[in-house]
Specification:
Blueprint: E1 3-9, E2 15-22, H1 23-32, E3 39-42, E4 56-58, E5 63-65, E6 74-75, E7 81-82, E8 96-99, E9 104-107
Antiparallel strand pairs: 1-2, 1-3, 4-5, 6-7, 8-9
Protein backbone atom coordinates (compact mmCIF):
# COMPACT_ATOMS: atom_id res chain seq x y z
CA UNK A 1 0.00 0.00 0.00
CA UNK A 2 1.41 3.40 -1.00
CA UNK A 3 1.93 5.99 1.73
CA UNK A 4 -0.05 9.23 1.60
CA UNK A 5 1.01 12.70 2.64
CA UNK A 6 -1.85 13.98 4.76
CA UNK A 7 -2.27 17.57 5.91
CA UNK A 8 -4.22 18.68 8.95
CA UNK A 9 -5.53 22.21 8.50
CA UNK A 10 -7.59 24.54 10.63
CA UNK A 11 -10.83 26.40 9.92
CA UNK A 12 -8.85 29.10 8.06
CA UNK A 13 -7.49 26.39 5.72
CA UNK A 14 -3.92 26.84 7.03
CA UNK A 15 -1.89 23.63 7.28
CA UNK A 16 -0.97 22.86 10.88
CA UNK A 17 0.99 19.66 10.25
CA UNK A 18 1.84 17.15 7.54
CA UNK A 19 2.13 13.42 8.19
CA UNK A 20 2.91 10.32 6.18
CA UNK A 21 0.43 7.44 6.57
CA UNK A 22 -1.07 4.58 4.62
CA UNK A 23 -4.74 4.85 3.61
CA UNK A 24 -5.92 2.21 6.09
CA UNK A 25 -4.33 3.97 9.09
CA UNK A 26 -5.59 7.36 7.94
CA UNK A 27 -9.21 6.22 7.50
CA UNK A 28 -9.24 4.45 10.86
CA UNK A 29 -7.65 7.41 12.67
CA UNK A 30 -10.24 9.87 11.32
CA UNK A 31 -13.09 7.57 12.32
CA UNK A 32 -11.71 7.09 15.85
CA UNK A 33 -11.03 10.80 16.52
CA UNK A 34 -14.09 12.84 15.46
CA UNK A 35 -13.40 15.32 18.29
CA UNK A 36 -10.42 16.83 16.46
CA UNK A 37 -11.39 20.26 15.18
CA UNK A 38 -10.03 20.78 11.71
CA UNK A 39 -9.75 18.77 8.54
CA UNK A 40 -7.40 16.10 7.25
CA UNK A 41 -6.78 15.97 3.53
CA UNK A 42 -4.46 14.08 1.22
CA UNK A 43 -1.95 16.50 -0.35
CA UNK A 44 -0.06 14.07 -2.57
CA UNK A 45 3.66 13.91 -3.16
CA UNK A 46 6.27 15.81 -1.21
CA UNK A 47 9.00 17.59 -3.15
CA UNK A 48 9.60 20.95 -4.76
CA UNK A 49 6.79 23.34 -3.96
CA UNK A 50 4.86 20.69 -2.03
CA UNK A 51 2.57 22.12 0.65
CA UNK A 52 3.84 22.19 4.20
CA UNK A 53 3.14 23.77 7.57
CA UNK A 54 1.60 27.27 7.33
CA UNK A 55 0.64 26.88 3.67
CA UNK A 56 -2.98 27.80 3.02
CA UNK A 57 -5.71 26.84 0.58
CA UNK A 58 -6.00 29.52 -2.09
CA UNK A 59 -9.63 29.44 -3.27
CA UNK A 60 -8.93 31.73 -6.24
CA UNK A 61 -6.09 29.58 -7.60
CA UNK A 62 -7.57 26.29 -6.32
CA UNK A 63 -4.22 25.19 -4.93
CA UNK A 64 -2.13 25.30 -1.77
CA UNK A 65 -0.08 28.50 -1.55
CA UNK A 66 3.06 29.11 0.53
CA UNK A 67 2.90 31.46 3.50
CA UNK A 68 3.30 35.13 2.63
CA UNK A 69 6.85 36.21 3.56
CA UNK A 70 6.04 39.93 3.95
CA UNK A 71 2.84 41.97 3.86
CA UNK A 72 3.78 43.88 0.70
CA UNK A 73 4.68 40.84 -1.47
CA UNK A 74 2.24 39.71 -4.19
CA UNK A 75 1.38 36.12 -5.18
CA UNK A 76 2.16 35.44 -8.85
CA UNK A 77 0.06 33.40 -11.26
CA UNK A 78 2.70 30.66 -10.82
CA UNK A 79 2.07 30.58 -7.05
CA UNK A 80 5.35 32.28 -6.04
CA UNK A 81 5.65 35.39 -3.86
CA UNK A 82 7.07 38.41 -5.67
CA UNK A 83 8.69 41.33 -3.83
CA UNK A 84 7.58 44.89 -4.58
CA UNK A 85 11.09 45.63 -5.91
CA UNK A 86 12.83 43.04 -8.12
CA UNK A 87 15.93 41.36 -6.75
CA UNK A 88 19.10 43.03 -8.14
CA UNK A 89 20.65 41.25 -11.11
CA UNK A 90 23.32 43.75 -12.20
CA UNK A 91 26.93 43.89 -11.05
CA UNK A 92 28.24 43.41 -8.51
CA UNK A 93 26.74 39.98 -8.15
CA UNK A 94 25.97 38.98 -4.63
CA UNK A 95 23.74 37.07 -2.31
CA UNK A 96 20.78 39.26 -1.55
CA UNK A 97 18.17 39.25 1.19
CA UNK A 98 15.00 41.28 1.53
CA UNK A 99 15.10 43.96 4.24
CA UNK A 100 11.51 44.77 5.14
CA UNK A 101 12.27 47.82 7.30
CA UNK A 102 13.53 49.91 4.39
CA UNK A 103 11.73 47.96 1.65
CA UNK A 104 14.88 47.07 -0.26
CA UNK A 105 17.39 44.35 -1.07
CA UNK A 106 20.66 44.14 0.89
CA UNK A 107 23.80 42.29 -0.10
CA UNK A 108 24.70 39.63 2.45
CA UNK A 109 28.38 40.48 1.99
CA UNK A 110 28.65 44.26 1.43
CA UNK A 111 31.06 45.30 -1.31
CA UNK A 112 34.10 47.33 -0.15
Amino acid sequence: MNPLYIAFFNEDKVIQRVELHNQEFFSKYCEEHPEIEGTWEEIGQQGFNAPGVNWYWNEEKETWSPPKPFDNWILSDDNFWIPPIPKPTEEPEGDWYWHQEDNSWHDIVPQP
